[in-house]
TrEMBL record:
<dbReference type="InterPro" id="IPR001466">
    <property type="entry name" value="Beta-lactam-related"/>
</dbReference>
<dbReference type="InterPro" id="IPR050789">
    <property type="entry name" value="Diverse_Enzym_Activities"/>
</dbReference>
<feature type="domain" description="Beta-lactamase-related">
    <location>
        <begin position="140"/>
        <end position="430"/>
    </location>
</feature>
<protein>
    <submittedName>
        <fullName>Beta-lactamase</fullName>
    </submittedName>
</protein>
<dbReference type="Pfam" id="PF00144">
    <property type="entry name" value="Beta-lactamase"/>
</dbReference>
<dbReference type="InterPro" id="IPR012338">
    <property type="entry name" value="Beta-lactam/transpept-like"/>
</dbReference>
Amino acid sequence: MDRAAAGGCESHQTIRLAVIKQGKRRRARTFTQKIGELQTRPTAQNAEDQAAEWGMGMKPTRIALRIAQTGLFLAIIGTNAVAQPNWSDSRAVFDERLAVFIKDPGNFPYAPMEPLAGTSRWKPLPKASAKQSGIAPEALEKARAYAQAMNSSAFIVWRDGRIENEWYGKGVDARTPLVSKSLSKPLTAIAVGRAMALGKIRSLDQSIADFIPSAKGTPKAKITIRYLLDMRSGMLDQGFSPDPAHPYNSALLDNDFGQRIIESYPMPYEPGTRYSYANAPSDLVGMVIEGATGQRYGDFLSREVLAPLGAQGGRIWVGKPGGLAHSGCCTFLPADTYLRMAVLLLDDGKWQNKRLLPKGYVAEMRKGTAQNPNFGLGIWIGDPYRLRRGFGAPGTLGPQVLHSEPYLDPELYLFDGNSNQIVAISPKYRLITLRVGPTPPAPKDGSAEWDNSFLPNTLIRGLTRR
């Protein structure tokens, strides 16, 4: 949906200017002094990593320029003095965030962020030698060239225990945290499975009110954990609105977004009866994990998911310092970490023969629903085939991802996020294909459109050992 359709160009502009004007009156120092760090931090890995920290995909000088232009943060360019919001004034912070979100939702800076610790003993995964490789060099090169042409930051091919091919864009390597978009959603499902394995959650069919006390006695008490993960919560579909009063905005931008979701996010459908894709239900998973384990969501991920996988950490967006983490989107992790998550699922919830997820849990994740057979618990399912598949409910308007042909492994499933972040998992061939990065270029002058089936099918056709 374009912005004019969402709210009208005139009202969009009027609200944006009013919010910016109001926000400029209230500001005092930035979220974690990032502009000053960008100007003075010579030891940072690279400019692209710094930009990724803000979710902008641009150089630091352009970050500072955009921030100065939009007024999200009051920065004194050329000095290290930057302003930080008064976090107790949630309305002022909301207004600042909304001003930028209305201006350019795709370049919204996720701030503040908190460290998400990983293992302290990270080691690269094994790589296949030329003798060990089971994929034709021509197929690997064809797939890599496609990933490079599609504006990727990272491309990895893993087969049966070894990395067959690995490529990173300029300024990116195996340790660079990258914005995940909705690759955070399968991470929520893994977190729930891990909590179940530890005995902290009894069943996917428990009410969320068992873990979120403020949901008790409200319509949201009818929502189960399963319904959060398979997008059948009954809550309103995700959308864009320039209206500050729209519940989608408070659910995303408020300091205490979790409570806003419980208190006021619309629930027009009976849970379990309709597929409605949104960040709001996925963000409630973080609250469930915190209620079940007594740990902050990021701490639980660090200790119980990333560390056991030998995976690196990164950063996670929180509503305010020390506040609830956004579990539904916007976690920054290296490509290698997403690869390890995929290997965990491919091996039925085991990592190096140690079970981290309950037996049968991955099979449960891979089950579609009557409302959307292509979506399971946080993951997408390749079969049944759809030439174009959207993120919203089948048949609804919105972006449609091309699949030029059926996946050659009918059991294939995948992590799939905005801007065509994909991690495709082929059980039949024990093959994982990962591509993350900015949005691929729009097709023009005969250039190819992004095709979800191209990479995995190219590699499957190139298998020399099956």
